[in-house]
Queue: 4 jobs
Job 1
Amino acid sequence: MKVKEIMSGPVIRIHDKENVAVAARTLTHYNIGALPVCGSDGKLCGVLTDRDIVTRCMAAGKNPETTAVREIMTGQVLSVEPETDAGVAAHLMGRRQVRRLPVVEAGKVCGMLSLGDLACREESAYDAMDALSDITGNITEY
């Protein structure tokens, strides 16, 4: 099974120059935990999570109204292409300890793959379980 068959889309994204308060409201409005961050050229340049907002902005004493997303986002982002095998993507997620993975085609985000997307499909449920086990450090017996 390919990533394109199970990824979520369309993708809600944010511009790297937008402020953190707008990002937080966007996460809340769409009830999501991560936003791909795109530059002026529309290409992926980072990911911003709700945890980034708490740890890198709020806990650091920064003002979310005046802090740009690019200042607190995770810049080195693991991504996959739509044609990537779902099992390979799950393995990468576990190894890099990420729960969400941008799906990129020609440098632009075309979807997001989450552990939940993998877990909801019978064909990839074990891959999701393995990835979650790697992320949390738990040993899972089948």
Job 2
Amino acid sequence: MEGLLNLMLHADELISEILAQYGSLTYLILFTIIFIETGLVIVAFFPGDGLLISAGILAATGDLDLSLLLILLSVATILGHTSNYLIGRGLGQRFIERAKLQQQPYLIKAETYYRKYGGMAVVLSRFFPFFRTLVPFVAGIAKMEMVWFTWCNSIGGLLWISAYLLLGYFFGEIPWVKANYGVVLSAMVILLLVALVVGILRGLISKGTNENR
């Protein structure tokens, strides 16, 4: 876990090494990393956020092309989530059927949740490590409608890639940000998690208030 955390916080050094060693193949490597991180639930802790910010910083210095990054990495993450969803829908459902778990209450609740809030979950989960890999997999298991998932997947993917690349592009070269890269990235993740927790608590409080009326 410590190694993964260090990898995420020092992604700027990693991508610089990749660029120095592989040149234009860096685009393909980044495409592969983003696809794998969002496409396979077993690699939920790949340093996607840090790599995107670092790629944006290198685009600001002219070492990478911002437009190409926006297109390639958006395609990579949309395809990754689609793959993850299909794995959940295929293998996950097959396991459930073999284990005869179809009528388990938690599965019924999951299907109900994804019918009501699945779109919002797919979009917002993009900004949270681990959740962005888990949510599409569970969406497949919960049989979220494919067309609706694809629409939300595309919106979330474009927002995530654009937000972090542009953040690095416009702010990454500021001396203080560059000197405190790990602190800035950690603060962003913490703020997003706090916002998520606050939103969940507000929803639970509102639900409890309505039920007591």
Job 3
Amino acid sequence: MSTDVLAVGAHPDDVELGCGGTLASLASAGYGVAIVHLTAGEAGTRGTAETRRSEAEAAAAVIGASLHWLDFGDGGLRRGDREEDELIALLRQLTPQVVLSPPPRDRHPDHERAHALTKDACFYAGVGARGQGRPHRPQAVWSYMIHHPFEPRFIVDVTRAWDAKCRAMDAYASQLYNSKKPVEGPPTRVSSPGFRASVEGRARHYGELVGAEFGEPFFGEIPPGVTASSLLGGPA
């Protein structure tokens, strides 16, 4: 299947937390969805790289996405020419129409580095003189929300995919809080019950803004275009 949307994560679980519902919605509608993790999360407080790879595979299966890996170094994500070229090669291989990236400003520096790397690689992937392979530039790059809030350009109704998003997050048993399977090891922010509740609370907040039960917000430097007819039928 061709790839319509590629979601980029600095670490395994970033994508699922930020845009897992959107990806699951697209996959269930028949679109080709792919995920690429730029690191294996090897510098995390909990779990090993092998554990997180296994968890990521389970999460991708729940979402209905193909899974790809790059090795740019967790806890100091590299974003030089070599890393750009590797991501460019993947973009040209998969030829996605849309790329979803970590946000430009966030609590974890790796998220910000991953955003800048993704943005640059998406541009240079369309430059024939750069790297190997046939040039391909995605039509749009949108950022999902992880920690820091932002003013969204649009919000995706993920109500029907909320269960799939939750099951994808539950696949990360070594990292994220799950009331049915307590996380073992030193406490972290994302392993707390409060963080898990905040993910749902945020989704309910953004969903309410567009008349949905759950929503996922996205940011981009250029607003999306809409047709005049699409203005009808929106939330009051």
Job 4
Amino acid sequence: MQGLGIHPRIINYIPGKAINEQELNRLKTGDYVGVYSPLEGLDVSHVGIVVRYDEQVWFRNASSLISNRKVVDSQFMEYMHSKPGIVVLRAD
């Protein structure tokens, strides 16, 4: 099976270790967030949407667990703590 091909580009991302309260406060409800992937030819490995409620920031995404297969809200910092970084897109 032939893939889509690789198109070289520079990806600007926020490293996982740099995601702190200051960066978290910059995120708005509706921002698209991709989990950055360091693999060649793969920009992001998973995507979701930022949602703010209950005075917290959440990552709304489709669960990748076969047993779950539904939309879930995870605390943003908890979900991202072990990820290599994030790519943020704001549709203004």
